[in-house]
Design brief:
Blueprint: H1 2-18, H2 21-37, H3 39-63
Length: 64
């Protein structure tokens, strides 16, 4: 259950950024597979998503 939720969230974030839902779904699937198979994979994928979110918020704040 957590795998499908995580895949949907990651896919939605990637699809929103790229404007391509199919690409987002595919990358979301790959990212969740990596994250659920190992602790280092989880840290890598989770850290990348967190870093991207922080980067986007900082960039948005500077644009205002």
């Amino acid at each position: 259950m957590l795998r499908s939720i995580a895949g949907a969230v990651v896919g939605e974030v990637i699809g929103r950024k790229r404007g391509n839902g199919l690409l987002g779904a595919g990358l979301g699937l790959v990212a969740t597979r990596i994250a659920t198979r190992s602790i280092p994979g989880l840290l890598l994928v989770g850290g990348a998503i967190a870093a991207k979110t922080i980067y986007d918020k900082r960039k948005e704040r500077r644009a205002e």
